[in-house]
Specification:
Layout lengths: L2 H32 L2 E2 L10 E7 L4 E6 L25 E8 H6 L8 H8 L5 E8 L8 E6 L1 H14 L20 E5 L10 H11 L4 E2 L5 H7 L3
Antiparallel strand pairs: 1-8, 2-3, 2-6, 3-4, 4-5, 5-7
InterPro entries: CHP02117
Keywords: Membrane, Transmembrane, Transmembrane helix
Protein name: TIGR02117 family protein
């Protein structure tokens, strides 16, 4: 075996070993840190507003009433931006994620390596996905959370800060993109990565509003584990 070939094989071995090591560290950290709970800030807070934590099995959303005396989300996000324009909707789900992944991957079958790579390594931009519901019931994939008015105000502020507004203070609707008749996409702040995922955003929303959360998690499994699911 030539010296050049031995060096090449050695380098390849180190590279593969390094990748496996980093992946193992990431998975181990995710499992360990997502198992460490952050307690509810005020266990005795009154239950003034009911919101929901929802997952599709991979991605989590925070679901809120469209209108309360604290906020009317129609003011920031006009119902005319969803294809159905159904004004009888009562709940709105908020999810944050990589813009390219959201817009180019409506189903897992559409996922491309290039899309995943850009999303994982801070190379893309982000978007907010809003989905509307007439009703929502507790179940394995949907957990009700009861917030005080003060906690809800902090959650509202956290979500509002995630939208990238234009100079006039309006949410920037990404036209021509939706998964169905009752959802819409908007420009957002921050950049997605394997360290800050859609579920990290949701977990931070829980922390911001004083709810139980994980110390850190990239997955929905960590969040739902904290809530006994």
């Amino acid at each position: 075996m030539s010296l050049t070939l031995r060096k090449t094989l050695k380098f390849t071995g180190y590279t593969i070993g390094g990748i496996i090591g980093v992946a193992a560290l990431y998975v181990g950290s995710a499992l360990a840190l997502s198992a460490i709970p952050v307690a509810k800030t005020d266990p005795n807070a009154p239950a003034d507003v009911t919101v929901f934590l929802h997952t599709n099995g991979v991605h989590t959303d925070i679901v809120l009433p469209i209108k309360t005396d604290q906020i009317d989300w129609n003011q920031l996000l006009p119902i005319a931006n969803i294809p159905s324009q159904d004004s009888t909707m009562r709940y709105i789900a908020f999810g944050w994620g990589d813009k390219g992944f959201y817009l180019d991957t409506p189903t897992w079958a559409d996922l491309k390596f290039s899309t995943a790579f850009v999303a994982a390594f801070w190379l893309g931009s982000s978007a907010m996905h809003t989905t509307y519901f007439h009703s929502l019931a507790p179940g394995p994939e949907t957990i009700p959370l009861h917030l005080s008015r003060a906690e809800y105000a902090r959650l509202i502020a956290y979500i509002q800060r995630s939208f990238a507004l234009d100079a006039a203070g309006h949410a920037q609707h990404i036209k021509g993109h939706s998964y169905g008749q009752d959802d819409a996409f908007y420009e957002a702040h921050r950049v997605y990565s394997f360290l800050y995922t859609c579920n990290t955003w949701t977990n931070n929303a829980l922390k911001a509003s004083g709810q139980r959360a994980c110390l850190w998690t990239p997955s929905d499994k960590g969040i739902f584990h904290i809530y006994g699911r």
